Amino acid sequence: MPDFLPPRPRRGFSSDNASGAHPEVLAAVAAANPGHAPAYGADAWTARAQELLAAEFGAGSQAFLVFNGTGANVSGLAAALRPYQAVVCSADAHLHTDECGAPARFTGSTVLPVPAEGGLLTPEGLEAALPRGRRGEHQVVPAVLSLTNASELGTVYRPEQVAELAAWARERGLLVHMDGARLANAAVSAGCSLAEVSTAAGVDVLSFGGTKNGLLLGEAVVFAGTAGGVAAARHYRHTRKQSTQLASKMRFLGAQFVALLGDGLWRRNALAANAAASRLAAGLGTVPGVEVVHPVQANTVFATMPPAMTARLADEFSFHLWDASAGIVRLVCSYDTDTTDIDSLITTARTLMTA
Q1: Predicted TM-score of the model (pTM)
Q2: Residues above pLDDT 90, as percent of the chain
């Protein structure tokens, strides 16, 4: 027997990546395990997952399963960019802050970060921030606008906002990419379908997240049925292989997406995570010395608190110190965050402030 002793399970608010896989997802993986199946996506589970993804994201869309979020973003963008081109994104975007330069290294293209109020870009902000002059071959050419939904600050683009930005991009010859690592949370927050807040509103290339919504691992790169989406998808199978995102035993990715999409598990998980964040924000707002600093529209709460409280709370509850200079912490709720988790943190915070 192995002598490894797992650590004591600890629940917290560090990330929705920290939660376990949903039991229905684990059951789907186990059910797909017996026997042999064709490799590299030529299996029944992957075919069914692609059918469900096409139903979610609209006629003409094409979906490809990959391992992780950075891989989904980078490989999807590589299908839409040439090395002399640039992707425009929020200065807070995962593409810019948390992918270790992978977009630039793998695509050969430039990332142009733009300040975004509350994590959300606007046409006016883009116009003000992007270079006005064109210097021909001496300057990179913006070719893709990338949106993150829900944003890194927990805010959500509603369908009409996505459509407005997509129209702005179209007028300038740009394709639209969306980092949808938390797209399920965004759709639930906006009260709409996955497509309505992405492909139906003008997004050409989409990273649809599963890991943060109850999967073991796995994301989908979705190309919309737009002219830009179809063109980008044309050679994506080769791009996916080159970017090391082609799973040999893909049936286990496919089975997870079948579980996630087959009977609305994605929506139930996102509803639970969003509701937990709303409860957490409301409770923290009653604690003296704590202030919620961004609108809580998905499953993430940003708040300021005194440094002493942060240090003491961190001894018992895991969360992320987002901006040490401003005293801002980030707390993320998952599909399995329950009232005990939330109420315990709030009670402890209140006790610390009154002690």
Answers
A1: 0.96
A2: 91
